[in-house]
Amino acid sequence: MSIQIIRPALNFQGSVTLPGDKSISHRYAMLAGLAEGTTRLSNFSTGADPHSSLACMAALGATVVHNPDKTIEITGTAGHFIQPEHPLDCGNSGSTMRMLAGLIAPHPHHFTLIGDHSLTLRPMERIRKPLAAMGAEIHLTGGDGASGGHAPINIYGGPLHAIDFDTPIPSAQVKTAVLFAGLQAEGTTSLSESVRTRDHSEHALRAFRATLTRASASAPGHLDRLSIPGHQKLHAINATVPGDISSAAFFLCAALLFPDSNLILDSIGMNPTRAALLDVIAALGGRIKVLNVEEHHGELIGTIQVTTNPGGFNGTTISGSLSAQLIDELPVIAAIAPYTRDGITIRDAKELRVKESDRIALVAKNLKAMGATLTEHEDGLTIPGGQKLHGAQIDSGTDHRIAMAFSIAALRATGETEIHGAEAAAISFPEFFTHLDTLSQR
């Protein structure tokens, strides 16, 4: 377990281009593996998680080539996965495991999905239930009940039929698993969401020439419905993956900590279903200027400049559907909360307890170690503002987002902070500490 020392900074300035969006990289890798032809991807995520998806595609019969110019070429299986010789190793990636289950369930083979210790603790009943309703035979470890089932997962694949599904929890991964299975099923599969989650899967499917439609709610209280006809064939694409806005969250929050910050993020993903983060940054006191924006395969890619508002570093409350939209960014928002003027309250975020770690508990533990006072709730945190933090030994819990979040909190603390388990950052953002050191003015 490595230790990273973070020293306080005086300011936060500079320009950075971030690695490719992790969520989009996963989806492009999987659909390319199923498609006909050779897909060429630029700026694919450098994080370990999407590379777990690439490795699974190779194990299923796709050819994956890493070119010297850092592009990745994936020659797909034209809709016919092979029987893998070994279990499909999803590493630390819940996205890989859940979405892959939907992609492979229609294929007539026996698949075993495994992962590291952290992944084997994460709930998988949420994807088993809709896939079983489509006719898939899926066995989870520890029972198939809501409080039980997890990896390793055994899938005995075969023909599936369409369903109409209402997602019980806001989850882009569950939505994607159902869409990927519906793409290959008999009939037209439809699903609705009580909270609209990130729509990268819809854009990616259309990019690979699949047909799907969204029907707007016909009356107040009703839900939008996504529909995807089955037995569709996919075709290879050439694409550039936008910079990862979830990775950008750490630097956006760092910019809020200093009155003279000036941060430029090049080629960043600006998908509207992810833009809630920018709204929160603005509410907290960040001034965001869009310098350029383009569309590629339905995804918006832009360059933004972030400076701080002379009016100060405000607080905010995050709850309801906003918590679901910001679920990955909440740890770093919480980590900087003590420095705000009015504090930050986070509620309706119980999902944080079943991520790579119990992120609510770890945020609370580490903020207290740095001298903060706060209240921990089952579904969130209340963190007063106007506090001063000191350096401490931080327990990352081998969770990449906790390691990076408290590296940002440490920039305004008094004294040095030790991030224990700092190597976890490589799961999503291997270049994080290099960029952080470049942008931190000391």
Explain how this protein is built.
By secondary structure, the protein is α/β, with parallel strands linked by helices. The protein folds into two domains: 3-20 and 242-441, Enolpyruvate transferase domain (UDP-n-acetylglucosamine1-carboxyvinyl-transferase, Chain), CATH 3.65.10.10; 22-240, UDP-n-acetylglucosamine1-carboxyvinyl-transferase, Chain, CATH 3.65.10. It is built from 13 helices and 24 strands. It has helices at residues 22-34, 48-59, 94-104, 125-133, 172-182, 200-207, 245-256, 276-284, 321-325, 330-335, 359-369, 400-409, 432-439, and strands at residues 3-6, 11-17, 38-42, 63-66, 72-75, 88-89, 110-114, 137-141, 150-156, 164-166, 188-192, 213-215, 225-229, 238-240, 262-269, 286-296, 299-308, 316-318, 344-346, 375-377, 380-383, 393-395, 417-420, 440-441. The strands form six sheets. The chain has a five-stranded mixed β-sheet. β20 (375-377) and β21 (380-383) form a beta hairpin. α7 (245-256) runs parallel beside α12. The radius of gyration is 21 Å and the shape is globular. The protein starts with a strand and ends with a strand.
